Amino acid sequence: MRRGGRDIGSMLLEAGFTRSTNMNIHEYQAKQLLAQYGVAVPQGQPCKTVDEARGIAEKIFASGHTLAVVKSQIHAAGGARASSRAASRGA
């Protein structure tokens, strides 16, 4: 993928990742990294508590938006592999 004439892989290498680096990062971390290099990403803010989420939502609504989305993420090793195995068994 290219952005502004630059290859995303080159940007990641500049940021200190290697070709063998395990990219076990959350989506919000990936967005922050890509934004550092000028890639347009949707707005969002990570939070860890209900109170933090409420505060972020209040700011979103105060700025005139009428809708907010809450997305929960966890690192779940093997989750995708387990899903694909279940699908291949017809589960």
Count all strands and give the number. 2
What assembly state would you assign to the polypeptide chains in this entry?
A: single chain
Distance between the termini: 35 Å
Number of domains: 1
How many helices in DSSP terms? 4
Strand content: under 5%
Largest sheet report: 2 strands, antiparallel
**What structural class results from the helix and strand content?**
mainly alpha
If you average the pLDDT, what whole number results?
Answer: 75
Strand order of the largest sheet: 1-2
The outline comes out as flat
Helices and strands, in N-to-C order? Answer: EEHHHH
Radius of gyration: 17 Å
Helix percent band:
40-55%
**Which stretches are poorly predicted, pLDDT < 50 over at least 5 residues?**
none
Kindly describe this structure.
The model has no long low-confidence stretch (mean pLDDT 75). The chain has helices spanning 8-14, 27-36, 50-62, 79-88; strands at residues 2-3, 6-7. It starts with a strand and ends with a helix. The chain has a two-stranded antiparallel ribbon with strand order 1-2. It is mainly alpha-helical. The chain has one domain (2-88). The chain has 4 helices and 2 strands.
